[in-house]
Design goal:
By secondary structure, the protein is α/β, with parallel strands linked by helices. It folds into two domains: about 280 residues, Spore Coat Polysaccharide Biosynthesis Protein SpsA, Chain A; about 80 residues, no CATH class. Helix content is about 40%, strand content about 15%. It has twelve helices and 13 strands. The strands form three sheets. Strands 1-4-3-2-5-9-7-10-8 form a nine-stranded mixed sheet. A two-stranded antiparallel ribbon has the order 6-11. α3 packs antiparallel against α10 and α5 packs across α8.
């Protein structure tokens, strides 16, 4: 609980968190958020920083009930801290409950935006959740004007491994910036999710992308199998000195190879085997499940990550863009959330209403570790978490 334990995150000039050095505070009576501790000095820095902000509720941070997830998330982020990132907190502060010592600690360590200060009785739980979300977006982008990207994490979204920062940097620098340049003609999306439940990304809950990938993977593996089988036949024939004349024909000109391939296609028995193994491999892939197959090799390097239109559900970790965040906030202000229309459901309608696209990165970069649903005030089936 002492600043000496976090010397790499403490400004030498002020004994405040170094993240305060990049804040640009402006007096705005219309702001829906307040900064808990004003910076003792402000150094406007032009570095290409990326904001990571964690949204949590003050009343849902009890150790005894197993709800203090934010401590685990911050431990991971601060332990493996990377200098390209600015870490902030958004505290959903709509109660007068006494805060715990742990919340007091993190309030002293990081910049905290106090949001959603209206009493609970004025608006419903789902609308209050939406207001907290958009106010957190607004607070971070307005306070750090030189940051172009914001990763908004729920307090129960834990990074998958210690290389999380490098994964995120590779994703943004080498995939997102290449696909949607900051000053390019192609408009940036509304957001990119970095998490989706594994059980909803499966062949038993198929999307167009998953079906196409299943067919492509099956065809590729079947082709590889037949190529291996073809070379195996050549080796066997060579060892047994069978049909040497035919063997030599395999290494002739490309025209002869074309003739051979044509004959191979015309061979009904081999075509039958090709179709048979295609369906067999497809069945094996379905039994193994999409995430077990695709995520295994995509996790090897960020260049293998897949980015495709986001399916419905869940906002534990989302990347937002400076170019489009105002449109996202305007959309959220234009709708009202309720029991059957929570914020994640509202985001499903965003592409139709704003003409902005939403995307998902595969594989997941964060785990969803929260057993407790803040909206529904109930514990979640552990089998649905990953």
């Amino acid at each position: 609980k002492h600043s000496e334990n976090h010397s790499n995150l403490i400004s030498k000039q002020t004994q405040q968190s170094i993240f305060y050095d990049y804040l640009e505070t402006k007096t705005n009576l219309l702001s829906s958020y307040t900064l808990l501790n004003k910076p003792k000095q402000t150094l406007l820095n032009k570095h290409d920083h990326i904001i990571i902000s964690i949204l949590y509720s003050k009343q849902d941070s009890d150790h005894r009930e197993g709800k203090f997830y934010i401590g685990q998330i911050l431990y991971h982020l601060l332990k493996n801290y990377h200098s390209r990132f600015i870490i902030t907190l958004c505290e959903n502060n709509n109660t007068n409950d006494q805060i715990s010592d742990s919340i007091e600690l993190i309030r002293r360590l990081l910049p905290v935006f106090i949001i959603n200060t209206l009493p609970e009785s004025i608006i419903n739980t789902y609308e209050r959740e939406k207001q907290a979300y958009l106010q957190c977006l607004l607070a971070n982008f307005q306070s750090f004007p030189n940051a172009n990207y914001l990763l908004l994490l729920q307090d129960d979204a834990e990074p998958t491994n210690k290389n999380f920062y490098n994964q995120l940097l590779s994703l943004i620098d080498y995939r997102i910036k290449q696909q949607w340049p900051l000053y390019g003609h192609r408009k940036q999306p509304a957001f990119i999710k970095i998490y989706h439940p594994r059980w909803l990304i499966s062949y038993f809950h198929p999307s167009f992308y998953i079906v196409i990938q299943l067919i492509a993977t099956s065809l590729f593996l079947t082709l590889v199998f037949f190529i291996c089988f073809y070379f195996y036949e050549i080796i066997i024939q060579k060892k047994n000195n069978i049909n040497q004349t035919q063997l030599k024909s395999y290494s002739r000109s490309s025209l002869n190879n074309h003739i051979y391939l044509s004959n191979l296609i015309k061979n009904n028995i081999k075509l039958f085997y090709f179709i048979f193994y295609f369906f067999l491999i497809t069945l094996v892939l379905i039994l193994l499940d999409h995430s077990n197959v695709s995520w295994t090799w995509r996790s090897l390097h960020p260049s293998f990550y897949s980015i495709y239109p986001a399916p419905s559900c869940c906002l534990p970790g989302v990347i937002y863009f400076r170019q489009t965040y105002i449109q996202v906030i305007e959309y959220l202000n234009s709708i009202k959330c309720h029991k059957n229309y929570a914020i994640d459901t509202a985001f499903d309608d965003l592409p139709k209403r704003t003409h902005l696209q939403t995307y998902l990165v595969e594989p997941n970069l964060v785990h969803h570790i929260g057993l407790y649903s803040r909206l529904r005030k109930m514990y979640i089936n552990p089998n649905l978490l990953d």
